[in-house]
Amino acid sequence: MSERSERIIGVSAVVSGDGTRCVRAGLPEPAPGTPFLPGPVFAAPYHLDPWQGPAAAPDGYGRPDNPTRRLLESAIGELEGGDCRVFASGQAAITGLLLAVLRAGDTVVLPADGYFPVRAFATATLAGNGVRVLLAPTAGPYPSFDGVRLVLVETPANPGLDVVDLPALAERVHAAGALLAVDNTTATPLGQRPLDLGADLVVASGTKAMTGHSDLLLGYVATRSAELLETLTSWRAATGAIPGAFDAWLAHRSLATLDLRLARQTANAEALARLLAGRADVSGLRWPGLPDDPAYPVASRQLRRMPGVLSFDLGGAERVARFLDAASLVAAATSFGGLHTTADRRAQWGDDTAPGFVRLSCGVEDTVDLVADVTAALDATA
Ligand SMILES: Cc1ncc(COP(=O)(O)O)c(C=O)c1O
After folding, report:
1. Same domain assignment for residues 212 and 357
2. Centroid of ligand 1 to alpha carbon of 91 (angstroms)
């Protein structure tokens, strides 16, 4: 990775700025007459050398081998600071990690307040496979890690936005001989590099802010352990949970603007957090960048930038629907991290949140327009 950053096109010094790293991440060496980012390679089988077979070329069959996917993996790997494998979705990456690493008799600790399909998968499938599943709230307290094989945390957690002190947690997890995996979906590698903070594995949904255009699903796992990488690579080849070449290419293209998109999303989240904090008709506001948020002390030293997502309560499902009807710039939609501002009433999906709980994801609209629109929609429905 550092070797790569020194080789980067036309830049002699080590490249460290976020915008520069995003624009250059994973690009091949320049060659006259070729595009900056090569187009997607669509192939199930590739031509084989009739004499040497698959030994002659890196690509033989599309499930394990695809050059478009490899370029995306080197880009994400550079940003996370590890080796990366991409998956068909965030859920495919997380379930792949859990199934590849855990065996009957193992114990896993999962977030009690994170993305709820992970808990649902654990209770339905992992427990059925003989894995003991413990749940812990992101902000703690955590159980004893004695006898635990893997601890997976989500920080900031979706949708409640609590955070956990990663270096302190990593020390406890490693003292017990367990592995620490961090879901980095909300922060993205520009907001936080879990591998630098002591994690053994990063896992994330690239569907959200990382690719940011609400037009594809993607997941990835990154690690510095050659052994874990090999386990995950074999798992993915065996189960086939790969993204298609076009999605991988779109994701790589979108990565170039990650720094710009996050900058505007964070600025919008800060402006909305300040607006919502001052309103008596909004309760339970959470945004880790607000100095009086319970997550602020850890978030302000751990996160390189605050997320573009905030959560709050509008008192009931009916007010949320009226608010979304009244707003022109806030679309009712699940997911988060996209270019357009969206809001999701999480209880409608069976998440165990209050009926009026809203997760709002800031897009890249002009801050002044977004603040005016949300103010008007709240006023109209107060
Ligand atoms: C924190 C987190 N992890 C994982 C996932 C799953 O990702 P995907 O929807 O790409 O499968 C999500 C989806 O919302 C998420 O919010």
Report:
1. no
2. 6
